[in-house]
Structures are given as structure tokens and as C-alpha cells.
Specification:
Number of helices: 11
Protein name: diguanylate cyclase
Radius of gyration: 32 Å
CATH class of the largest domain: Alpha Beta
Distance between the termini: 20 Å
Helix content: 55-70%
CATH topology of the largest domain: Alpha-Beta Plaits
Pfam families: GGDEF
Order of helices and strands: HHHHHHHEHHEEHEEEHE
InterPro entries: Diguanylate_Cyclase, GGDEF_dom, Nucleotide_cyclase, Rev_trsase/Diguanyl_cyclase
Catalytic activity: 2 GTP = 3',3'-c-di-GMP + 2 diphosphate
CATH architecture of the largest domain: 2-Layer Sandwich
EC number: 2.7.7.65
CATH superfamily of the largest domain: Reverse transcriptase/Diguanylate cyclase domain
Strand order of the largest sheet: 2-3-1-6-7
Structural class: alpha+beta
Amino acid sequence: MQGVQQTGAAHGASEELQKITVFMLKHQIAGLPRNFELVHEAFTGGNPDLARELAALGSRPSQQALDQIGLKHRLSAHCGVSAERLQDEMLKTLTRLSDQLSLGVTQKRAFTNSVEGVIRSIREDVTVGIDQLLGELDLLSSIAGDMVKAETVLSSDVARGLESLKAADRAIRASQAAMKRDHLTGLANRISLFQTLEEVHATASPAKPSALVLIEILDLPGLQHQYGDEAVSKLIKGLAGIFRKAIKKHDFIARIEADTFAFVFEGINADEAHIIAERLFTTAENNLVFASETSPGVGGLPLAIGHAMAHEAADPTSWLAIAKTATMLARQNPRQPIIGYKPGQRQVA
């Protein structure tokens, strides 16, 4: 049974990739990774606004138009491109300021050399006439005036350059933050989850346990087909808000796939993780009423929940994998929608 489901999942992923490839070829969209992400989100991300905006571009959309949509919807690859562009602009600004400062130093040296030349002239020829001395002083005054003008321009350019650097730094920080956020819900995304798993797993132990809980919405494609993308997008946003309010401020929550939320709880054991999973399940069930084609009876939103402990996994990737396995088993057994991983022969509880 499991092999059949895996084959079906692989076939579905292949069909999805084929649709994306055909769409990009038909509309002559460059095969860049960020463009694949954009089209994938339009096809499967449950974001009708993005899909409409992409369709409105028509055939042969410009890369600039595609990038603008990607940035607007905070897709990670497009945010990364934006950060790289801003960093390049910062480097150019720093180079220009460096050149201007070097020019200012050169002008100061020229003025200093002129002053020293006048002083030497006076010392070497004490009989120098007042007219000649005044002429040399006028020359120095002229050089000093030009230098002051250049310094004023330089000061203004430096001030503008610093403001430009500050603005670029703020934009880069915003882009980096957007790369770690799910565009639909505003929650952390998969990138942020992996960073959190690495940090938490590094210090986890039986004495300092931490749990990963995955919650999957069952039959999300069926819900989209029955109710429409916009209604399901609102559902996901609502569910995100419910989950956020149901946990503590320091607990971690992310949306890592179109139908999957992830939670990281530090300082709890497996039994406590199971209790929290039950509470989240009940909270969602009491607040969201939906029916899919595969579950026609109106009731709570169908969910599958799996959880696993950090110290029972070899590394962060394995931690996520065993939590996914527990979720898959919960998906296969509607009577037991919450399953926790246990090491050894009896791997679920």
C-alpha cells in the first residue's frame, strides 16, 4: 500500500513538473531557478493573486516583470536576487566614495606643497618684494578656495552615499527577512525551519528534549477543487492565525509546504508533545468547519499530525524525516490522526 502511494506521489510530482515546463516553454520564460519557483507557486502555492498577475503578463513576459511579481509576493529566490543587486550597488557606492576621498587627499597634498613652496621661497630670498609675496599668497588663496569648494561637494556626496548605503542595508535586511517568511501566511518558511532545526538539534539531549510537530491538511487539492483557490488561501491564513494564538510566543511555527505546518517546542518530552498535538488538533477542529470530496461529512478540517524528538534523530534532516514518516502514518490511519515516532521496533505511538 505504501509503495503504491509513493508511486502515485512520484507520478503526481512528475505531472506537476511537466505542466510547469510546458507553461514556461509556451510563454517563453527563461529557465531560471527563480522563474521555476514563481511558476510553481502560481500552479500549486494556493496564491490566486500571484497566478492572476502571472497570467496577466501574457506571452513572453519580461524578466523584470517576472522579478517584480516575485518580489511583491516575497518568493525566496527573487528576494535573494534583490539582495545580491543591492549588495552590488553598495559596493559601487563604496568604491565611488573611496575615489572621491582619494581625490580630496590629493588636493590637500597639492595645497600643502604650495604652502611649503611659498615658505621656502621666502626663507631662501628674504629680499622678496611685497608684490611677489602677495601674488604667491593670492595663488594660495585661490587654491584654498578651490579646495574648500571640492571639500563641500565631497561632504555632500559622502552624506548622500552614506544615506544610500543605509537604505541599501535596510533593503537587504528586509529581503533577507522576506526569504525566511511564507508569502501567504507571514509565518516562517522552510528555510527558517531548517535553521531552527539545526540550532535546536545541536543542543538537544534526553535531559534537554525538544519536539518537532508536523500538521498536514488532508486532501488540499480536493479542497481547492471544491471551494476554489481563494477560499482555501483564506482557510490557510485562518489556520495559521489559529495555530499562532494556540502556542506560546517563544515557540516556533512555520508553513513549510502548501499543506503542512511545522512547530518546534523546546523543553518538552514526547508525552507533552503528544498532548500539545492533540490540543492543536482540537483547536483547529473547533474553529474551522470544512468538508472535502473525500470526506463529505461536514466537520472539522481533516488533519494528520506527526511528531518526533530531536535527541532521537541523528541530525536535523533525520529529525524532519522521521516526523514526516509519523505524519504519513497518521494520514493513512484516520482513526489515529496523531502519531509520535518512537525509536526501536515499535516506531510509532
